[in-house]
Specification:
The structure holds three protein chains of three kinds.
Chain A: H1 2-11, H2 17-40, H3 46-67, H4 69-75, H5 79-84, H6 89-118, H7 128-155, H8 157-161, H9 167-173, H10 185-193, H11 195-207, H12 213-245
Chain B: H1 9-17, H2 23-49, H3 54-84, H4 87-91, H5 97-104, H6 106-126, H7 136-163, H8 168-181, H9 193-199, H10 205-214, H11 222-254
Chain C: E1 3-16, E2 19-32, E3 36-40, H1 47-54, E4 62-67, E5 70-71, H2 76-80, E6 83-87, H3 99-109, H4 114-127, H5 143-154, E7 161-165, H6 173-188, E8 192-196, H7 200-206, E9 209-214, E10 217-222, H8 224-229, E11 236-243, H9 246-251, E12 256-264, E13 267-273, H10 279-286, E14 290-297, H11 302-309
Parallel strand pairs in C: 3-8, 3-9, 6-7, 7-8
Antiparallel strand pairs in C: 1-2, 1-4, 4-5, 9-10, 11-13, 11-14, 12-13
Helix pairs in contact in C: 3-4
Classes of the chains: A mainly alpha, B mainly alpha, C alpha/beta.
């Protein structure tokens, strides 16, 4: 917990222009498009799209911040120091991923503020308690995805080069716009394997107080935990490889 | 001629500072990435207003993505110059700064041309956006005019990047602005009056309307729109030419040319 | 002799939150045609700022500078084609290009006709001994090779005036010597050269005239002998002797800038300065600490003069 607060305090770089854009301005752009498209057809349930705009920004922020959390350390040559530190590498990456997801909340809050006060959308959150609960579940799933990304990117520069390419497909795949249930079987399977899909589903279900909301949250937590354990063992392995060979090339 | 000269300025600029060097990266970022982009906005719009709206949005985004490619990569070239510490070497040469900037623009312009054409092909194959026959010459004219007005606008950014070492936020904001106000996803006529006037002063707005008209998705006078687009391009060109010399002077004054990232 | 650079009351200030900071504070000097002119001073003294202003990349905040008779502020376009510059370090190259491609790129910027480029590039790369590496990508080059490539680049427009800002920084001794030979060669061809360096011996060897610059001001200017003579009041000695009580010597404060190096106990080599120019007296005094094997008055080097003049800096 202490690590988490320190991480947010010292390592969140609000001067990064990319982050500024993702957190503060991107929700505004998506909401503007929604606002004007709404004029084409009036009977639109805007809640879903306010949420979508928040999710898009949250996901982009997590992708760019957590994704590059380790790889930038590799470039600065501080990764070695990190591994030599008494705190385990896993704890360090997890805190980074967690703190980035928490920061990403800014864009969610802003999305709702923009939606309410600039665009005059009605936002019907039926039950704030459940809604907050589902947000916590979402953040957990986002953190786990961020964690996995950080590991994959640092292990392979090749994958990192294609970072931009997964930005939009993930949003589509996780059911932000179109419910996953309507996907073809193969896509559905892939989507259900991503923890974020469940996190997003939890929030969407809670928004309309769907009877499945608790089961969605439960599944989301379970899937996230599975990835968390997986990540734990991979990071342990990375640590061993690093100590042995002194480089990450072997992975 | 300039294209096939192995040691030509354009070719060397591309090799030295352009972002996409391998065929693999090129395929992913010039074919797969635009496709994803079209799908993303097509989904957003059609889940809002219905799937009959899909073609309308994809066409808009094909033009938008072309513009984005040119602007981002043009700016990136100057960022790379700073990163390598070569910007000052370029500026200190007897070739006028404006000419250097203009000639470097050829690479993103060709890139944009490629993206535009590939975009239209993707549209035709995957989104079933087919052009009524006999319009090919107008389409070519439109592509050339659009690229012209976009590159003229991008020149503004290029000149600004002489002074600011990191104009990224500015660039991202402009791209978001274009996404909303150039009629990419919805007709600019939906905008409130003052915003529509603003939209009509941006490049791309008229091009997109003309492009949709060519594809029979809207009914406007194509030549009229293209004429306006050229006029807008020329205006930005004049402003840019003026701005380059102002920016260079300012950059010499506050030492911005020497700032490396 | 014709003045190729005239600087009068030149200042350059930067705005900081705490107020104005002067990188250059009212400096004036001239450089004559054909000279090798050295600008020496600690980091942050204003050497690079001076060069950036003279190469038209930075505007002064006050004062005037003329290069080749043209004003650096208003007539920069007249200057740029007739000068060139090299900054030390590994920046300023495109790693993805080969040396040959890099040279072609700058040939185009310097408006060399296409048909003349190949021959010119061949000559220049031969001159800096990079002909065998011309088709290698620059990111594979060593620091010395990059530096020589910069020299080749800066000769593209056959400049009358060259600015070399720490060209030998970070080079190994052989690389540095190669570069000094090239500089000497260029100077012999009549090119005027402005050089900054932190290596005093290099400056002594290459420069016709030297300016010491500190805190944005020129503190001394003249030929190397004049600069050394400015320190003639210093009495520098070097001695080899056996010493039995080294601590007693160290504590004695009549020796300034005492440097002691052990050769083999109890033999030491000493370097020091005292307020006495009679060798006999110094020798007599020193023998109270041990047996002198050898003692002599040392010539003042440029480094001695530099250290003397910069002693109050940082």
């Amino acid at each position: 917990m202490f690590l988490l607060i320190r991480e947010i305090k010292y390592f969140t770089n609000f001067n990064n222009k990319m982050y500024q854009f993702l957190l503060f301005f991107q929700p505004l752009m998506i909401l503007s498009i929604v606002y004007f498209l709404k004029q084409v057809r009036g009977d639109i349930n805007s809640d879903k799209f306010v949420l979508a705009s928040a999710l898009i920004s949250m996901w982009s922020y997590v992708l760019y911040s957590s994704g590059s959390a380790l790889i930038s350390q590799k470039w600065n040559d501080t990764l070695k120091l990190l591994i030599a530190a008494p705190v385990s590498l896993f704890a360090v990456i997890l805190t980074k991923a967690l703190s980035n997801s928490v920061i990403a909340l800014i864009s969610m809050i802003l999305s709702f503020i923009y939606a309410r006060f600039i665009f005059q959308f009605n936002i019907g959150i039926a039950n704030y308690g459940y809604f907050l609960l589902s947000i916590v579940v979402l953040i957990f799933s986002l953190s786990v995805v961020g964690l996995i990304l950080a590991i994959v990117f640092v292990a392979s520069q090749n994958v990192f080069d294609f970072q931009n390419l997964i930005l939009t497909p993930m949003i589509l795949l996780c059911g932000v716009f179109i419910p996953v249930e309507q996907f073809p079987v193969v896509l559905k399977l892939i989507a259900y394997l991503i923890p974020m899909t469940w996190g997003i589903k939890s929030v969407q279900d809670t928004l309309v107080l769907s009877p499945f909301m608790f089961s969605s949250m439960a599944v989301s937590i379970v899937v996230s935990l599975i990835y968390l354990f997986l990540a734990y063992f991979i990071v342990k392995k990375i640590e061993v490889v690093l100590r042995k060979t002194g480089s990450l090339g072997a992975i | 001629m300039i294209l096939i000269n192995k040691y030509g300025f354009t070719n060397l600029s591309y090799k030295a500072i352009y972002s996409f060097q391998t065929i693999r990266l090129f395929i992913f970022f010039r074919i797969v990435d635009p496709f994803m982009h079209y799908v993303f906005f097509a989904t957003l719009a059609s889940s809002l207003v219905g799937s009959d709206y899909l073609k309308y949005v994809v066409i808009g985004n094909i033009a938008y993505y072309t513009c984005q490619t040119i602007m981002i990569n043009y700016m990136n070239m100057f960022r790379m110059e700073r990163r390598y510490g070569t910007l000052e070497l370029n500026i200190a040469s007897p070739t006028p700064t404006l000419l250097i900037i203009l000639r470097k623009g050829i690479v993103p312009l060709l890139d944009g041309l490629f993206v535009f054409i590939v975009g239209l092909i993707i549209g035709a194959i995957l989104f079933d956006i087919t052009m009524p026959s006999g319009n090919l010459d107008i389409l070519l004219l439109l592509i050339i005019i659009t690229l012209f007005s976009v590159i003229c606008f991008s020149l503004l950014f290029a000149s600004v990047s002489l002074l600011f070492s990191n104009a990224n936020l500015f660039l991202n904001l402009s791209m978001a602005f274009f996404q909303v106000f150039c009629g990419v996803n919805f007709s600019v006529t939906l905008l409130p009056e003052p915003l529509e006037i603003l939209a009509r002063m941006l490049p791309l707005t008229h091009s997109i309307e003309a492009l949709r008209s060519i594809y029979n998705l809207e009914n406007y006078e194509v030549y009229h729109l293209l004429g306006k687009e050229i006029l807008i391009g020329v205006c930005y060109l004049i402003v840019s030419v003026f701005l380059v010399s102002v920016m260079e002077k300012l950059a010499r004054k506050n030492g911005a040319l020497l700032k490396n990232i | 002799m014709e003045k190729i650079i005239e600087v009068k009351g030149l200042s350059r200030a930067y705005k900081l939150k705490t107020g104005l900071k002067y990188a250059l504070d009212d400096i004036s000097f001239d450089v004559k045609k054909g000279e090798v002119f050295g600008l020496l001073g600690p980091n942050g003294a204003g050497k690079t700022t001076t060069i950036k202003i003279l190469t038209t990349l930075l505007l002064p905040t006050a004062g005037e500078a003329r290069v080749l008779g043209y004003d650096v502020v208003s007539e920069s376009h007249m200057i740029r084609n007739r000068i060139n510059f090299v900054y030390g370090g590994e920046r300023g190259v495109y790693g993805r290009l080969t040396a040959k491609e890099y040279m072609h790129y700058f040939c185009t910027l310097y408006k060399i006709k296409n048909k003349d480029q190949a021959a010119l590039i061949k000559d220049l790369l031969n001159l800096v001994k990079l002909q065998d590496a011309e088709n290698q990508k620059i990111h594979t080059y060593s620091k010395g090779m990059i530096q020589r490539l910069h020299i080749a680049r800066c000769l593209i427009n056959d400049p009358e005036l060259l600015f070399l800002d720490e060209p030998t920084i970070g080079l190994d001794p052989i690389g540095a010597k190669l570069l000094r030979d090239i500089v000497r060669d260029l100077s012999s061809k009549g090119i005027t050269i402005i050089l900054t360096t932190h290596y005093m011996q290099e400056a002594d060897e290459l420069c016709d005239r030297i300016a010491f610059i500190k805190g944005g001001k020129i503190s001394l200017i003249g030929d190397p002998d004049f600069i050394k003579q400015s320190c003639n009041h210093l009495n520098l000695y070097e001695a080899t002797m056996s010493i039995y009580d080294i601590e007693k010597l160290k504590e004695n404060n009549s020796f300034n800038k005492l440097e002691i190096e052990v050769i083999k106990e109890p033999y030491y080599s000493l370097n020091f300065e005292v307020n006495e120019n009679d060798l006999e007296k110094v020798s007599a005094y020193l023998s109270t600490f041990g047996d002198i094997l050898k003692i002599s008055k040392r010539n003042i080097s440029l480094e001695d003069a530099y250290i003397y003049h910069m002693k109050d800096v940082g």
